[in-house]
Amino acid sequence: MLIPWKGQPFPPEGQRRATAEALVRILVIDDEPSLARSITALLQADDRLIEECGTVAEALARLNAAAYDLIVLDYRLPDASGLAVMDWLLSHDRRESVIMISAEQSVEAAVGALRRGAADFLVKPYSAEQLRRSVAKTLAKRQTERSRRQTRQRLESSEQMHRYLVENSLDLIYTLDADGRFSYLNQRIESLLGHPRSALLGKHFSEIVYPEDLERARFSFNERRTGPRATSNLALRLTRNPFGNVESDEHGPVSIVLNAMGIYNRTDSRAAIHYAGTYGAARSLPGYRLHEQGHGDHSFHDPLTHLPNRDLFCDRLNLSIAQAKRRKTHIAVMFIDMDRFKLVNDTYGQGEGDTLLRAVATRLRQCLRKGDSLTRHGSDEFLVLLPDVGTKADATAIADKILQAFRNPFPVVDGEFTATISLGAALHPEDGDSADDLIQHASVAMHQVKGSGGNAFSFFSPDMHATYRARISLEKELHQALGRKELELHYQPLISLSRGAITGMEALVRWRHPVHGVVAPSRFIQMAEEAGIIHEITRWVLDTACAQFSSWRRRYPNLRLSTNLSARDFDHSDLDDIVSRVLARYGLPADSLEVEITERLLLEQDDKVSRRMQSLRELGIGIAIDDFGTGYSSLAYLRRCGVTRLKIDRSFVRNIKSTEDHPIVSAIAGIARGFDIRLAAEGVERDDQMNALETLGCDEMQGFLFSRPISAEDATRILQNFRLPGAVPPPSPALAP
């Protein structure tokens, strides 16, 4: 059945062909006509053409005659399984995306579909929203892949096009070598500044920087950093060539906004990366001027969002404080931080991140009153000044309005992004008598919200300050913990019931604070991630654990080591190099190491994380999902990321009993079997838990029933003397007959 345009006559034949090429073609294959019609009605849209059929034979006939973007496929059909359609697609190298729907409860059905490349597997009865979301996600991903394919084809077919775009860009694009000398300039340098680019190649960048801006430009124009910390939207001035041909009749320096980042490369795939220079892009700002003020040069507005900058905001805040003191009124300062902005930059790129920041600024402005002020305080941080708030309730109402506004998603290149914020507020005169105090206390309240999960609002209170100071102090001491040798490793064995032996050791980091005693990992690991030192701790853990493990492997050659990686570790491009160098240092084979990641990282992964997982797998290193079953991750990720082990989370093990059914654990065990992935359980504390897990097909497990995390010395002893709980010990030589 073909769905025509709703309520509209068909257009002329030529227009109809052009329109059909732009439409999304969907084939619904289900032998229940009423269900097929309901799916069609649910998915119907002006930009979609939907057809229906009810058998495998009819489906293959349609597929032979036409191509589709998406197939919604029932698992059970009258003449064969829906898997037969997927087998046909694979054998004919077709690119249709498939969403399988089924009343089957068995894991084998899901595994069969996902192994054949299904984008999703929905179990009946499913909600209408589930189907809509699955279709939208699948089509968005398909569009992204199609765009990438087209882009790749264009680039592969014409390098000349790429050079044309760079050469004719409205931005000045350059690269510097490691000494800060120009190695490339596009032709924009000539129309913007009047300098022949041939004359500047090989010259230092200071040749074109306005002398009074040189000190400020020194570390930004010649940038070494990459990622969010790299130079972004820095306002500078460049000098014109007084004898050159430029596009403007104006004299004096040219105001620009600069973005720059370091370039790193390696001589071969195994060599360490090294700094090779800088890539930068500078955009001129017609009519934009850097004004002379008492302290030096600065603009009064943020170049990206056009909001008042921090200097202008602080001037307004100080004026409001003075007026509030005279009038005996209240003012409020709000500190707003976006919770997941880094995810946008990492996933879609800085350009899309800048677009989102501009949209966020617009939405915040719409929530404020006419006399209120807003500034961008940092990369993804904003400050709000409410100069006249009658009561605390008035500030609360504005905060609630802001939070409500952020419930609506923002458009991004592949669809939509729901941005959440952490919002803290401080009141004058209760929470501070100066601009610095109010901003600091609003920041403390914001960090309290962020530490509790974000997407909320809180006023400052004095007890927060004590907590914040204690946290800052502890964070400072964590920076010093490695040098003071306060970090230590404990090891928890992984047991195989069928072998009656220890098959692995998991390395777990502990912080023994000289005053506070043992600090829980759940507390200091998150702190290390936020402070940016988790990667340093990970390197120490890897080196220390592998050093110990190398001595164990000489006596126990089949033993495996597992260690945890933070999501922040995947921000580092040299992660695989670090791991491989440590293994080589201690003469360990790559397949003796298994790194554990959380299921949340699997859910939130982008191309960068996926590439680094694949690099680890290519080295031979195993990847385990530490808390599988808690995050509802797509099974397709398991195949795509090369996962080698699933660890059943302790929350499922805690209440397990040998006399009851355990559908979730059974499903996880079935998934592991279907994907040929090793299975383990953590948090095993009782005999009945061990017996139930063994019955369900889980052979390897760890927990207090076998051993708590212990020192390396105790782990060595348990390796020598281990026996399963309840096993009969060998007779003493003195008592042997």
Radius of gyration from the alpha-carbon trace, in angstroms: 31 Å
**Helix share bin:** 40-55%
- Ends distance: 85 Å
- CATH architecture classification of the largest domain: Alpha-Beta Barrel
- CATH first level of the largest domain: Alpha Beta
Average of per-residue pLDDT values: 82
Q: What would the principal axes of the Cα set say about the shape?
A: globular
Q: How would you write the strand order of the largest sheet?
A: 20-21-23-24-25-26-27-28
Question: What's the assembly state of these chains?
Answer: single chain
- Unreliable stretches (pLDDT < 50, length at least 5) are 1-19, 287-298, 730-737
Helix-strand makeup class: alpha/beta
The total domain count is: 4
CATH superfamily of the largest domain: EAL domain
Number of helices: 26
Would you give the CATH topology of the largest domain?
TIM Barrel
Main pleated sheet:
8 strands, mixed, barrel
- The proportion of residues in beta strands is 15-25%
